[in-house]
Amino acid sequence: MFKWAQQTLANVAGTQEPEYGPSAILSVAEEAKQTPYTETTRADLKWTAMESTCVETQVFYITSDNGPAIFVQVIYNNVAGIRTTCQFNTKIFFVNDAKKETLWSSTPLKDHEFSEDMTSFYAADCAVELSEDGESYSIKSHNDDRAVVNLVVKRTAPGFQAGSTGKSLFGTDLHHPWGSMRHVFWPRCVASGTITTKEDGPIDFAGGRALFIHALQGMKPHHLAARWNFANFQGPEHSAVLMQFITPPSYGSTVVTVGGIARDGEIVCAGTDATATHVATKEDTENDWPEPTQIKYTWSGTAKDGSKIEAVVEGGLEERLDRIDVMAEVPGFVKKIAGSVAGTKPFIYQYCPRETKLALKLRKGDAPEVLEPGLLFAEATFIS
């Protein structure tokens, strides 16, 4: 009876769930045992737009050797089926100019809607459109004159999702789950277009290396994950992406990792055989989280010709780009419904080491190891 009451309160108020244990999550890694990954089609890129509690996002990361590192993002957020809010975020890290402050724009969107086939998102002065051929996205936003976005991101390698559906499921009856987590990736893309700022005018991103992720958290985010790790490596020949979440104790502190490596025209390997390790940390005295200072990301898999793939990116993260207090950015209504949860203090740490470029070490079968320097954008998120 107590567990039922605790679950009911968690559903309504966002408080901590009872401990169901690892049997209440079906990791996408189980699918990946039979099908490590599937290449995505247009149908895999549809918005779900759930009418119950969820957070669904499309985010585009762009890096270049000599210019800023950026991401632009549209967020669809439903709170308990009571109210839906949408947000457009733009962040520009002037990593090539230490004197310039990061530009952050987060704008509420009005009058949101989707295309008939649910592959494109629209709102007042904002559009994120999938092209007819399914090969590129156009991202436009005029909601904030500090950052006017007019970008195109075109994939140069196939997209993928882990397993056959990309989904991890949550619930005590996994045939009728009460929640889910899903990620779809375009790991290797090229960017074009501009972001126009008041200070710099149009910043040209032509030729920038890009990553696209469509993610769905199909219940309260802090019930799904207590911690996250994210890595986006972009090199001249290869791209590597890794997304890891660790569930709260309510789901057995289960670790789920998805990732892949791509080069132009092909997926080298992808699936759930990947790891993220904080090799060294330091305590953040402002909130007690163990901020990583050195990391190690690994990928393992099988190439289409049957060759074994092993890859690693490791090294120091240098000084962080930013530390985000997530609750400070959450809309007031969402915070009131889902916030104020004991033990929940979400912070995101962001990095892009530049002074000593990290490298992707990749070995295929018996071939000599490839060592490819590139740019790493990394995040470590602590929630509860």
UniProtKB/TrEMBL annotation:
UniProt KW keywords: Cytoplasm
Residue stretches making up the Svf1-like C-terminal domain: 219-384
Membrane-crossing residue ranges in chain numbering: none
Pfam families assigned to the protein according to its UniProt record, in alphabetical order: Svf1, Svf1_C
Stored InterPro entries: Ceramide-binding_SVF1 (IPR051385), Svf1-like_C (IPR033394), Svf1-like_N (IPR013931)
All copies of domain Svf1-like N-terminal, residue ranges: 55-217
Primary site of residence: cytoplasm
Protein name, per record: Cell survival pathways protein
